[in-house]
Amino acid sequence: MIKQFIDKLIAKATPGPRRAKPRFGKRTEVPAEVHGIDPSLVDHRAVDVVRTLKDAGFEAYIVGGAVRDLLLGLNPKDFDVATNATPEQVKGLFRRAFIIGKRFRIVHVVYGHGKESDVIEVSTFRAFLDNSAAEQVSGNEKTSRRALAGVQHAVDASGRVLRDNVWGPQDEDATRRDFTLNAMYYDPETQIVVDYHHGIEDAKKKLLRMIGDPATRYREDPVRIIRAVRFAAKLGDLGFALELKTAAPLVQSQALLADVPQSRMFDEVLKLLQTGHALATIDQLHKLGLSQGIYPLLDVVVERADTDFVHAALSDTDRRVREGKPVAPSFLLACVLWEDVRAGWNRRMQSGELPLPALYEAIDDTLDQRIGDISGRGKLAADMREIWVMQPRFEKRTGRVPDSMVAQLRFRAGFDFLWLRAEVGEVDEALAEWWQEYSTADEQRRYDLLEQAREEQKARQRAQQPVVRRVAPKVTTDHGIAPAAPEPASSTGEPVAAAAKKRRRRRRKPGTGDTASPSNTD
C-alpha cells in the first residue's frame, strides 16, 4: 500500500504526459465452426507460404485485411502472411523472394512470371515500443536518409514513426496494428483464428475501432487517417461505421499528413479511388469533414465529383473493379484533369497558337500543377498524355489515321475516354459508335466505314461553304438609285460582254482549211 502511494507521488511529480501501460490483449483462439471462414476462398499460394514457414519451425499466419474479408464472406484481393521468422530467414526459404522497404522491412515471395505473377507479402512480428524512447530525427524519410541509416526505431518531431524494424512476439504485433478487424491471424491448416482485440465481436457489431488511443495512433502514422476513410467506404455497404472515438480526432489530426512524403500520399490517394468504392469514398470524406485538405489532387477529385464527366469516370472505375477488370490510374486521372487540359488548350488556340503545340503545352502545365514531381510520374504522365493527344485524332477518319490509331497500345484507353465524353454530350455519340465498329470490323467493313466517313466529311464541307449570289449593280437616274437593266444576252444565253470576252480569248487550231496560222488573232 505504501509502495503504491509512493509510486503515485513519483508519477505526479514526473514532468511530461503520462503514458498508459500498453494492453496487449488476451489471446483467443476461435474455431472454424464459430468464425465460419470458407477455406476455398484462401489463396493456395498464401497457404503454401504458411506451410513452408511452419515446416521450417516458425510460426506463420495469414493476417490483416485478408482475414477481415474472409470473415465477412468477401473475396480478398491480397493475401499477407505474418511470421516470427526474420526477413533474412524468410528469404532463405523461397527461391524467388526479395526483401524490400526501409521503414518496414518485409519480404515479397513471387509466384508465376510476367503478367501472371503474384506476390505474397510476408512481414515479421514487430515489437510494441514506446515511441518516446525512439531515436528522434528531424525531417522525414526523404530528407533524413543519412540519419536513419542503420536505425531500427525512429520517429520525427511530431511522433510519426520513420523506422519500425524491431521484432517481437505475436501479441505485441497485434497491438501495433491499426484496427481490430485487421489484427486477426488465420491458420489455414488448423483453421483457427487468433484474436487479441475482440475483432470478431466488432465484426458482429459492424464497428470499425482503432486499437489504443486513436489520436496517438494517427500521430504515429497519419496515413491511418486515409485508411480509416477507405475502410469506412469499403465496408459501408455492409453496414459498418467508424466508432465515434475513432472518428473524433480525424479532422484535428489531418494537418499531420503534411509531413508524409508526397509519393506515399499519392499512392494512398490512388488506393482510395481504385478499390471499387470511389463514389462511396467521396461521400465518406464529406460525412467525416475531410473533403478538403488531405491532398491537393484529392481536393480536385472531390470538387469535380459532381460534374457529369468525372462522376461517370468514378462510376465506371467502381464498376470495372466489381467485375474484376483491371483499372489504370492514368485513365481516371486523365478524366479528372481533362477540364484543366481542355481549358488551357482552348486558351492557347484563341491566342493564335497551332492546335497540336497548344495541346502539348496545356498538358505539360496541367501535369506540373496537379501531379508535380513524384516517384513514378514518368510512366503515369506518358499514359495520360497519350490518352489526351488521341482525342483530336479521333475526329480524323480518313486516310491511314484510323488504322494507325487502332494499332496503338493505348487505343482502348483513348477510346474509353472518347466514349465517356460522348456519354456526357461533349462529342457526338455517332463518332464513338463509328470507332467502336471500326476497331472490331473486318477489312471490307472498314473500307465501307471509311467511305461513309468521306461522304460525311464532304457533306460537312459543302454545308460550311458560303452561298454566292449575284446581285445586279445599282445605277443612278434622275429619279434616284435604281437597279441597272439586265445585260443583253447572246444566242447562247450568256451576256453579250461575257460572250465577246470568251471570243477574244479563243484561238483557232492550226492546220485546218478555214483557220489562220497560230501567229494570227481574230
TrEMBL record:
Chain ranges of the Polymerase A arginine-rich C-terminal domain: 352-465
Residue ranges with Basic residues bias: 500-510
Domain of life: Bacteria
UniProt keywords, alphabetically: ATP-binding, mRNA processing, Nucleotide-binding, Nucleotidyltransferase, RNA-binding, Transcription, Transferase
EC supergroup of this enzyme: transferase
Every Poly A polymerase head domain range: 60-209
EC number of the protein: 2.7.7.19
Keyword Nucleotide-binding annotated: yes
UniProt domain tRNA nucleotidyltransferase/poly(A) polymerase RNA and SrmB- binding: residue ranges: 239-299
Similarity remark: Belongs to the tRNA nucleotidyltransferase/poly(A) polymerase family.
Function as written in the Swiss-Prot or TrEMBL entry: Adds poly(A) tail to the 3' end of many RNAs, which usually targets these RNAs for decay. Plays a significant role in the global control of gene expression, through influencing the rate of transcript degradation, and in the general RNA quality control.
Entry protein name: Poly(A) polymerase I
Native species: Giesbergeria sinuosa
Gene: pcnB
